[in-house]
Amino acid sequence: MSDFSSRKRNTLGLPLVGIAVALVAAGGLLLPDLSEARGGGGGGGGNRGGGASKSVAGANQRERDGNANRNNNVNRNNNKNVNVNNNRNTNVNVNNRRDVDVDIDVDRRGCCHGDWDIDVDHHHGGALAAGIVIGAMAVTTAAVVGSSYYALPPGCTVVYTYGPPYHYCGNVYYEQRYQGNQVTYVVINP
Amino acid sequence: MKSNSNSIARKTVLAASLLLACVSGAAQDSPDVAADAGSSAVAPEAVAAVERMQSYIHGLKAYAVHAETTEDEVLPFGYKLQGNQNVDLLVQLPSQLRVDISGDDRDQTYLLDGATFTMHAKRLGVYTQAPVTATLDQAVGKLLSDGVEMPLIDVIYQGTKGTLLEGARAGRVVGESRIDGVLCDHLAFRQATIDWQIWIAQGDQPLPKKLLITTRYEVGDPQFEAELTWDIAPKIGGDSFAFKAPSDARKIPWEKGAHSTADATGGQP
Lengths: 190, 269
Description:
The complex is a heterodimer of chains A (190) and B (269).
Chain A: H1 2-5, H2 16-25, H3 56-68, H4 70-77, H5 79-95, E1 105-106, E2 118-119, H6 126-131, E3 148-151, E4 157-159, E5 166-169, E6 172-179, E7 182-188
Helix pairs in contact in A: 3-4, 4-5
Chain B: H1 8-26, H2 31-39, H3 44-58, E1 62-74, E2 80-92, E3 96-103, E4 107-112, E5 116-121, E6 126-131, H4 136-145, H5 153-160, E7 170-179, E8 182-190, E9 194-201, E10 208-215, E11 223-231, E12 250-251, E13 254-255, E14 263-265
Parallel strand pairs in B: 6-12
Antiparallel strand pairs in B: 1-2, 1-11, 2-3, 3-4, 4-5, 5-6, 7-8, 8-9, 9-10, 10-11
Helix pairs in contact in B: 1-2, 3-5, 4-5
């Protein structure tokens, strides 16, 4: 069950166990449509979780960073372990089971095939990640300011400002920023 | 290493030696000690082949590389998808660089004109810039520590600054292999989080022709692979390294210092 508590967002507040059971039951239906499931697409070439390291020098850098500060290393490279612990506490004490969502709609930009509801969690992967999508829950999420994403949810409008514009999506404001060499959307408090 | 025999026995011995070297390295508690212990497990002829390549690239004043790259992405249930990219790299020492990437889910340009570093995501219509008052080797080191892991940064890095062997705990020359018609030495290395193989041309132009990186401790052992075509006398135009922002492109902030830890998609509306 620890995988569930590592998720950052919320579904309908279904009990965790219920979701797990549903996942298992629906296992045969959960196979992602592999025809189009590339994720993120922010525009960079960095190293996402679940992806391949793209350079030896980059891996060396990460390993070096890890040696310099082992705590950092854990946070950066071993997201799975650390997030599980951190978020479990949050989950129970603060958010009242609102931290369950694992689904990510992957939509390759500018391509020809329209929307693909393949649900991929790049950072946590695993069998559970794909499941919750089934049932297409409409969800209201308490987005945490400062959290960042590779893509916006659907239905956003652009809010023009004196500085960089905001993307306003269901009560949440995002600002586009580069993190490393990835274009991301960071939740802000305008 | 001029052997043509890639027998099973030979490969078994290779695997065993790589494994043993790493087990002995992993047995150490301190990463530093482990790295030290492991460095001796890199075979001298493998080190020699890499150094030969490095010193040759060091001697180039300008070069262009075209690469076809593939990278695995691991989906839930362990499905692996392979993404394709075309990468064009143009380098002019001491301080200029251009990387153009086009691929399945990204078109991106990186520019270093000696004064400014620019990243431009064409499909998204955004770019970011930062001043760089450094030579290429300093700049590349800085970019790596800022989390910018450009494709082919290995080529630039070893061509300017450092060695790829810094993290290698074990390494061997596997044998010979022909890549794109060129006879190459095939080398295999293992370090803490990745295994990697490189094919370096034999003869008087010891350039890397192929790179393969296997990421360990990720489900499915995803791989990144690049086949490289070199031009050591590239044509360089006056505006090769200049960035002109398209009229509809927007400059956005750049959070340096770390790899992105973003999730894939924002919360549902």
